[in-house]
Amino acid sequence: MDYLGSTSYAACTLCPRVCSVDRTVGHTGFCGQTSEIRLACATLHRGEEPPLVTGAGSGALFFSGCTLGCRDCQNWQLSREGVGRGVSAEELAEIMLHLETGGAANINFVTATQFIPSIVDALEIARSRGLEIPTVWNTSGFESASALDMLNPWIDIYLTDIKTLSSTLAIRETGRGDYPDVIREVLPVMLKDRRVSYAGDTLLRGVIVRHLVLPEYIEESLDVIRCYGRNVGSRGIFSLMTQYLNPRDPGCERGISAFEYELLSDALAEAGIEEGFLQEPSDTAEWLPDFTRSNPFPDDYSRVLWHYRKGSIRR
């Protein structure tokens, strides 16, 4: 199974940056990662959308590094500082199986584009050992279509961002003016042959599209809502997130106002978006994770089964 890793990491083109570095010999591109999987924690996580957190919660795996590097990243310890430790595909497969045994509704790969070849290897091992629950690809959407082709047979649910469709705002938030073009290319790949299906309240297959509202850029969010209504509609599930709060960014500490929230709610109705979630505004930062803690999230949101500082599965 090593052929996937050695071929794809040797001249890496997993994301649109096309760094083309040889990660197999320890070189790193923008993501800051070699070909070794780096994992920060594995947790039964209840902070995702309702159909992903039935049972004990989503089996969330938080990886080090990132292909995009957003200005306001809530997981900056992972994306920018590389918090985590190396694991093999074999060890990752065992962690997945332990999450399933612990009652996870799914296996949720959070920001893992930089490790796609190794994750495919780990999924092949885990499936061969009896892993049955759905898989979730939790992503910024900043990946190459060819990388998604490699991943597609192994993923049941895509949970992707549309951060913005404005090139100007994309430059401010991500440093990449081409982000809107990339998401327009990869979203149809995610949607293809991925009809939304449930077992009771649990999502088994489909695409959830997230958009985080930035308080100073409401019009850009309205554009995303209108575009989603025209181009996705009933083929996906829309999740409008309003919890933006960045205490590290002076001048950007506020959340959205009641008036702005009403504008967004009206726009969803006007766009004909009926299946999805609209998050209630919040003025607290308690949900912001700290991955150096033994539990990065509040205890009622998360039960950690593996942490990079412990390095072993918690029974």
Structure classification = alpha/beta
Mean pLDDT: 91
Strand content: 15-25%
Tally of separate helices: 9
Question: Distance between termini?
Answer: 29 Å
N-to-C SSE series?
Answer: HEEHEHEHEHEHHEEHEHEE
Low-pLDDT residue intervals, each spanning 5 or more residues: 1-7
Overall outline: globular
Whole-angstrom Rg: 19 Å
Major pleated sheet: 11 strands, mixed
Helix content: 25-40%
For the secondary structure, the number of strands is 11
Folded structure, characterized:
- The chain has helices at residues 2-10, 76-79, 89-101, 116-128, 145-151, 167-174, 179-191, 218-231, 258-270, and strands at 37-45, 58-63, 85-87, 107-110, 135-139, 157-161, 197-199, 202-212, 237-241, 276-278, 302-307.
- With 315 residues, the protein is an alpha/beta fold.
- Strands 1, 2, 3, 4, 5, 6, 7, 8, 9, 10 and 11 form an eleven-stranded mixed beta sheet that branches.
